[in-house]
Amino acid sequence: MNPHPNTPAVAGEPPHADSHSHSHPHPHGLQHDLATLFARRRAMLWLAGAGASALGFPGCGGGGDSATATSSTASSTTSNATSTSTSISSGSSSSTSVSSCTVIPEETAGPYPGDGSNASNSSVSNVLVQSGVVRQDIRSSFAGFSGTAAGVPLTLTLRLVNTGSACADLSGYAIYLWHCDRDGNYSLYSSGVTNQNYLRGVQATDSGGKATFTTIFPGCYSGRMPHLHFEVYRSTTTATSYSNKLKTSQIALPIDICNEVYNNATGYATSKTNFARISFASDNVFSDGYQTQLASVSGDLSGGYVATLVVGVAG
After folding, report:
1. Which residue, 9, 12, 272, 305, is most buried by CB atoms nearer than 10 A?
2. Is 266 a domain residue?
3. 230: in domain
């Protein structure tokens, strides 16, 4: 993975080493990465044998590869084919039933989780215990910090379902979401934004298993496809430390939507350059499969985007 060109690393940690790259360790160590990667590959091999031909996995390319760029419509169809047979609405707590679902892969939280598992500025960083972290709009900093992340609006709805109980909606659970800003920086850790805690927040799932966040479209930093991180907890009460989490994973975004944002939106020029150099095939996290992690995205630059994803966990 290429180091982040604009963001000096946190002491003792490589720039944005939130991948399976063994040359760039993260706080959980090499052994954790190997175990996680091998588990994912075994899972994907099983899926491939069970129905890869039926799913028709799409080709993947970097930012400017039109031959392999996946359209938002095709991406949505592929993602839904592996996780759900119906769409979900971000504007209502009511839900249609999900006829099939798959456990979303376990992923590294990377070096910038802010969940109490590591330190920033020589002290343990745990945004989960800060007052006000349970919120829908995560664009602004809170709990004594000030500042708002600029960028194209994105509304993300995650629907949590139980793969061990006929894909039943999991209500009352909690999802902690965090991601980089449009410059590719992570609040609390990256140079220039250590005094910010924006783009981090917790939401409880409603009666339909859904949690909705108002945020911005993330940037693309060197060496990674655009993505968002999240952790699943049993409740907002237990969502106070990484030691209580049930699942850690990442969300991928459709190639054509990324190109639309990075090529046309103000403030994403660096992302445009970085995105042209990366692909799902070369990404250290998504290269072994991303279909159950690919969000369905609609919208446009003027009105913002809406993303949805069904998240299967063994509840």
Report:
1. 305
2. yes
3. yes
How far from 50 is each of 43, 56, 58, 82, 91, CA to CA, in Å? Answer: 11, 12, 17, 12, 35
Nearest Cα residue to 212 out of 153, 147, 258, 275:
153
DSSP, res 191:
T
- Nearest C-alpha neighbor of 40 from the set 111, 110, 107: 107
What digits encode the pLDDT tens for the residues 94-118? 556 787 899 999 999 999 999 999 9
Per the structure, the count of domains in the chain is 1
Predicted local distance difference test score (pLDDT) of residue 28: 41
- Structural domain boundaries enclosing 276: 29-313
- The CATH number linked to 61 is 2.60.130.10
Angle CA 195–200–202, to nearest 5: 140
Whether 277 contacts 265, CB under 8 Å: no
Whole-prediction pTM value?
0.77
d(CA 276, CA 219): 13
CA distance 296 to 298: 7
Residue entry with tokens 């798959």: 102
Residue whose pair of structure tokens reads 């802010």 in the numeric block: 114
